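so my prof wants the structure for this chain in the tokens format not the other one, which i didnt know existed until like an hour ago. anyway here's the sequence
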Amino acid sequence: MDFKTRTLQELRGRRSTLTSRHALVGFDGFVDTIVTPVAQRAGQGENFTPIGTIAEFGQRILAAAGKSTNIEFYPRMDKLGGNGPIMANALLAQGTNLTYIGALGNPVLNPVFADMAARSEVISLCDPAATTAAEFTDGKLMLGMMKSLDEITPAKIDEVVTPQRYREILGAADLIALVNWTMIPNMTSVFVDLVERVLPQVPVKPGRVFFFDLADPEKRSRADLVYALETIGRFEQFGSVTLGLNLKEAQQVYSVLGFGTEEETEAGLRAMAAKIRERLDLTTVVVHPKESAACANRTDTYWVPGPYVAKPLITTGAGDHFNAGFSAGQIMGLAPDCCLGVGVCTSGHYVRTGNSPTLADLETFLANWK
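here's what i got, hopefully its the right format
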């Protein structure tokens, strides 16, 4: 039986369990403006030729050195953004009960989060950050303004959420997803506060999963990254820990842990996941490039191909949808390769449609995946 058939069978057999599961996701929040860079304009509106690749965009910038240039970004949409809100929205679409704590607006919620707030409990710590996401055929550039995220600290969480309510929310959660470490300067302090002060006062819940996403740690120092990774390992005493990494993040973590490089093959992805997992002593490590996904747990490694599409409708948020699908699979109790299957299909549906899939959508996607 191939993994698509197994995933479909397990999903159909376990889907009803998700409505009894509760997730806590935090702590970022962005307003994303999706844009297309303009190469040459022939008229108003969409009457232009886009800059197609990041290389072409880079050449335009380099040509301006010692001079100046004007690059137009044509706006496509404003949408809720940030690793946390996008992952949370995807979990909500699949039927998970959810509490979100993060940067959603102060003193009132930003309108892009209104729909999420209508379907979940949300607690805002501060104003959201802002991202201009320039999408190309070979990737995307995320241009961010993130000063508001400086306000996310253990003291701010205590002030807004209160210590008692914080413990209650954590205690009720089957999934605790702590994402976007890179862009939240005090996130490691939040991690340390959780493992040293807060979680020791929270009852252990069987099957609880802690999920971590670093979010492109290239701009953080090697020392900061190693300390954060070691701190993530300390969460194992309170539940099973999953570290989710896209290919670039996995390569950065692999390097900083002293492993060098691996080929971007099935064997290489399995090896990266396994060695990172073993070095950090985590329950699970996931590596998900665009074309496939691999994971390693304490007993084995797994790999599945992805439903790759050459011309996606949207790519911003694809990794967060993978994370939501994989995590949903975990708290439903699916086998590891089926969790990977739900992850790649959640992402695959999203990049084709721009919508977060329901479980019914995923079943249809799996059934029609040739």
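also thought this was worth mentioning. DSSP finds 13 helices and 14 strands in the chain.
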